[in-house]
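Example 5.3 — DUF1795 domain-containing protein
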Amino acid sequence: MKTKIFMMTALALTLMVGNAGCNEKGGSDKVPAGMHEVTYQGFAFLCPDVLKPAKQLGSDETAPNFFMLDETDMMNSLSCEVSETNAEFTREAGERFGKEMTSGDPKTKVEYKVLENGILVKTVLNDPSLSSETIYTSMRIFVKGKKAISVTFAYSENNKATLSKFVDAVMDSVKAIE
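Solution (predicted structure tokens):
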């Protein structure tokens, strides 16, 4: 239940974020084929070219921080959210967060790894009440000082072959650019 609420809250927050400070860059020698770099509010990460900017709710404008495989399919998406934190990141805080994530719904398999500057969480959700397919999600929280970015990449079983090959590159690419 806790995981379901977290995933839906993260998705809703991502959809509501405005247009501030996002630029897509292409053509860099360091960017793997089939991907481009996205910058957003002082952070950068890679995005697969197959994911396109999503339209904002009730508008024809695109959201700068939400990318989807298909304009009607939010389950196969990459999104980010930037926020201020109360304190700098510590390994203890990362461990607490990871343990909270693993103590949730038994239908969700959760793995996490605490990193020097944040945490990586990977989930596999198999809940027929939410989706007829298994949903895979990777979330990288990267903290720089008192500012954090959460990059979330989700895809369904039907799109695993198309999207799973990009997950590690996206999660490993998250960085501060300020």
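Remark. The first strand starts at residue 22 and ends at 25.
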